[in-house]
């Protein structure tokens, strides 16, 4: 039911976008051969991320009728710095990174992917299969892995929970460290480097679908509330026409044979317009954090 609502919404939005910008990518197909540059954050390890998004890069270049360059950065803060300095025009980032950028320099969410019929996800708290802990707060005085300082699911959710219990993460955990990606956090717990970690539910579920994945060595002991899917964000200096052109391309992918192939490789059903209400629960969570 939810999937059908998202698809219907995307189709209505597509008709609106097409009427505003026409059927080509001419708004971004400039006279020069200056490339359109976008970035992808380290949701998974760099090699995996590049492999998944290289087809999207090529698809976008065809639709925009100009060269497209994809950049990767290790942290969400680096992605935001590129957007703030207008070094890139668009990025796939995390919800926490988007909220930070929106507050700092007016970063805008353009669209959000639909995965398995939904445009929402959760933070999973994980431990090894034989660990007796049944909740995050039972991991006091133990080693915990975060993914990135701005990651909603990989740091902000567990930090808010620990702060709400009256502790800073430095006082609550024996030790914390950053892995820079969700799959590496899962591996850290599976290999005994960390006692627990907070990870993106989408990446955890994807790895659990791989029979020989190391993810089978860990288990979920706590889940967060639902949050709006990590958005595709755009530089605030892009014109309205340029944003609408990009939105049209994203929303139209599910009805285009080549677009469908790229979406399948990304494990997306399609894209939907980013509604500000999608990120309300995440914003409320960040306001509960009392530490830097």
TrEMBL record:
One of its GO terms (biological process) is transmembrane transport. It holds the Pfam family Phosphonate-bd. GO terms for cellular component: ATP-binding cassette (ABC) transporter complex. Residues 1-29 form the signal peptide. Keywords: Signal. InterPro entries: PhnD. CDD domains: PBP2_PnhD_1. Belongs to the phosphate/phosphite/phosphonate binding protein family. This is Phosphonate transport system substrate-binding protein. The lineage of its organism: Bacteria, Pseudomonadati, Thermodesulfobacteriota, Desulfuromonadia, Desulfuromonadales.
